[in-house]
UniProtKB/TrEMBL annotation:
The gene is holA. Keywords: DNA replication, DNA-directed DNA polymerase, Nucleotidyltransferase, Transferase. This is DNA polymerase III subunit delta. Residues 20-145 form the DNA polymerase III delta N-terminal domain. GO terms for molecular function: DNA-directed DNA polymerase activity.
């Protein structure tokens, strides 16, 4: 298994492999590397004819994928076949996912030299690791793990994003910007866009960054609500205590938990009305990668559980103002009540 930097080094040396399996949390970073492969492999005028894409969630078998791989490229030496969001590479499996994985595993050694097959799988949360399925593909495919980047490497990439939008940013402001965000390039690009639009005719200031940036706690709330959905009481309380230890106030944490449950309720309701993912993203007006996380998280709850969790949040919102119990104890009781309701 290699990381993104090692992948980039191989590409710079002109080494293009027959099959790539990307995995990690940052879908935008993975898509960026696929675009690098696209530019290296495909002639610009024939991209549409030689780049075939399949949604991993909609595959019943690999017949159409194999057929695309076996079909000769048009006016080009090679073509690319992509399976995106290949959830059959995760640990959890039903009969169809197991069948898809077995078909893929058998076919990898037969990919023709005229095709580069690319597959990617997005982790559900930052605790997830490459599955046994993914690890077993090493040797037949180049497995690339998309880790978040930090430090100078992150600052360099972020500065390039600002410059690509015709906006410069000072070193102090750049360091502040990077310190307030995780290394998720999808989130970063969204925040850069917001800042550029906000400070369209002037330099970006520290005040702009503090005003507009999403806090890192968003990820922590995703994790906390995940633990609530899994009914992991001890881990949820530890996560809560970590947030409070960082200096977050109880009412702010409660607000974020309540907001998360409201979003999950809207998404769960939309899914039950058979709305597509694109329609849901458009309706809740959040970036696709956040929407995807929320859709996956909503599967851990029923509508009634989400309504119950919101009622509990409202009750404890009143308790925080009136009860004599300390805030930490009240928040722990809130978590226990949502998990046992």
């Amino acid at each position: 298994m290699i990381n993104l930097s090692q992948f980039e080094d191989k590409i710079k040396k002109g080494t293009i492999d027959n099959c790539y399996v990307f995995c990690g949390l940052d879908e935008e970073a993975i898509k960026d590397k696929i675009r690098v492969l696209e530019r290296k492999i495909l002639a610009e005028n024939f991209v549409d004819l030689n780049f075939v894409k399949f949604d991993g969630d909609n595959l019943v078998n690999l017949d159409s994928v194999i057929n695309a791989c076996e079909t000769l490229p048009f006016m080009s030496e090679k073509k690319i076949v992509l399976i995106y969001r290949a959830n059959f590479l995760g640990e959890k499996e039903d009969g169809n996912k197991k069948s898809l994985y077995n078909e893929l595993n058998s076919y990898l050694k037969n990919i023709p030299p005229t095709c580069t097959l690319i597959i990617y799988y997005i982790f559900k949360d930052k605790r997830e690791k490459p599955s046994r399925k993914i690890l077993s593909l090493e040797g037949k495919a180049t497995v690339v793990k998309s880790d978040k980047i930090y430090g100078r490497e992150l600052e360099s990439k972020v500065k390039n994003i600002f410059q690509s939008k015709g906006k410069d940013i000072g070193n102090v402001e750049l360091k502040l910007f990077c310190s307030l965000l995780s290394g998720d390039m999808g989130i970063i690009e969204n925040e850069v866009e917001k800042l550029c639009c906000y400070a369209i005719d002037r330099d970006i200031t520290k005040e702009d960054i503090y005003l507009l940036l999403n806090k890192k706690e968003d990820d922590d709330i995703f994790d906390l609500v995940d633990l609530i959905g899994d009914k992991k009481v001890k881990e949820a309380i530890n996560s809560l205590n970590e947030l409070m230890h960082k200096g977050d106030k109880a009412n702010e944490i409660l607000f974020m938990i309540e907001r998360q449950f409201k979003l999950l309720y809207r998404i769960k309701y939309s899914l039950e009305r058979m709305m597509s993912r694109d329609q849901i993203c458009s309706e809740i007006k959040l970036p696709p990668f956040i929407c995807e996380k929320l859709i996956n998280q909503s599967k851990k709850f029923t509508i009634s559980k989400l309504v119950g969790a919101l009622d509990i949040c409202l009750k404890w919102e009143k308790n925080l103002k009136s009860s004599s119990l300390d805030r930490k104890t009240q928040m722990e009781l809130l978590l226990i009540e949502t998990m046992t309701a």
